């Protein structure tokens, strides 16, 4: 081995840092740095992963390995029982070399890396550092996302007219709550954009052949998701060209004739580093400035990226690690059978959404929040049960994403530290924002009776069960008071008991 072949530094790459242009890899020099990937057997086998989630992580990393090797780097993969064992092996092989990595987006990984003396370079796959978020948060008693979003708009100078928002309003969400189009008889159906399809290559095929090694759930990869930066950029261009204009109005809608609606489908690529939030926002702004994109759509999309996404990451690092174990409502229900089997329920909305997850490892934010998380909260599932399921079954899952979204928003398990009221709803909301109810066995308007919508029954039962807990919450006082006045409260309780038993039996 010549001196030029001897590395001077080791760079460890994790599944959430698959970017050649950011973090530690941006500093890498062929001949100077050896690039190491650690494949943890525990990470791959300790959970039941959605097949497409596991495939996506493995194939994206294999494509990056290939790119780095083609660029002249020495690339090594360590197969180890777990990450700690892999780092120990690396340290034994190279006791004198500095080991560096981009600071991971997970608390657990950061702790492990730090315990082995790995130098952590700044994670610049976000637009806001945890320190910047903490500085902003120090000025507020309540960490309201809307105020953070305004801070971001000003700080990043996005959609601003000097010190005021373009159009005079910060938030155009009131324009972005349309239900699915319901054409009248004789009218043509609404045309939704067709999603891109991605052809597999030899690397994809090699990874696909490995999936038999693992216990997975859901359908195998079917061309829905790209596994390269080139594919991710193609998805970004497809979104800005075909979906951005109508993103805003229908972003909360749950139509049955499309699974994409007008959503970008960019979150998986952002969360592993194939795309950077700055370039995504800039591409959308560029399209807006060309004309033809309503302000409500560009504002709604920008809010998702620089507002919500950055806010969630900030919350994750702002609260202590114990936050993930919060369970303010003291609920202990197990995962409902329907989460693993869409045939284990008669509810058309839930069965359809679980089928979508099964087929593509993804549904947009409203089915996640107002169907899946809503149901889990109403039945009294333990928050960590839902957290684990989402963490392993969604293509864009990451610890920093799921912990605040489940503990803080989806399950109100933090007692209101993040959101001042729980996100719960009965069948009326689902009926208004979807096409599911017309062909369902249950009536969203009914609270009691054999054909009463489980969401409607459980909504009122939830308010009844938690009446004392929410007594001091000003945003919940009206529905809680209304519940106490219900003449059919005993019947609601009885029906709720039937619904719970039926859901856990896989019969309702």
Please sum up the structure shown:
The protein has 19 helices and 9 strands.
List the quaternary state of the chains. Answer: single chain
How much of the sequence is in beta strands?
5-15%
Please tell me the overall pLDDT. Answer: 96
Number of domains: 3
Shape, please?
globular
User: Distance between the terminal alpha carbons, to the nearest Å?
Assistant: 67 Å
- The appropriate CATH architecture of the largest domain is Orthogonal Bundle
How many helical stretches? 19
Keywords:
3 domains; Rossmann fold; alpha/beta; 19 helices; 508 residues; DNA Cyclobutane Dipyrimidine Photolyase, subunit A, domain 3; Serine Threonine Protein Phosphatase 5, Tetratricopeptide repeat; five-stranded parallel sheet; two-stranded parallel sheet; 9 strands
What does this structure look like?
44% of the residues are buried. Helix content is 44%, strand content 7%. The chain folds into three domains: 3-121, 3-Layer(aba) Sandwich (Rossmann fold), CATH 3.40.50; 130-193 and 243-318, Serine Threonine Protein Phosphatase 5, Tetratricopeptide repeat (Alpha Horseshoe); 324-504, DNA Cyclobutane Dipyrimidine Photolyase, subunit A, domain 3, CATH 1.10.579. Strand 7 (160-161) and strand 8 form a beta hairpin. The model has no long low-confidence stretch (mean pLDDT 96). It has 508 residues and is α/β, with parallel strands linked by helices. Strands 4-2-1-5-6 form a five-stranded parallel sheet, sandwiched between helices. Strands 3-9 form a two-stranded parallel ribbon. The protein has 19 helices and nine strands. It has helices at residues 41-45, 51-70, 83-93, 107-115, 130-137, 145-156, 202-210, 229-242, 267-272, 277-289, 295-318, 348-360, 365-379, 383-393, 399-410, 427-433, 454-465, 477-484, 489-504; strands at residues 9-13, 33-40, 49-50, 74-80, 99-102, 119-121, 160-161, 164-165, 216-217. Helix 11 crosses helix 15, helix 13 crosses helix 17 and helix 17 packs across helix 18.
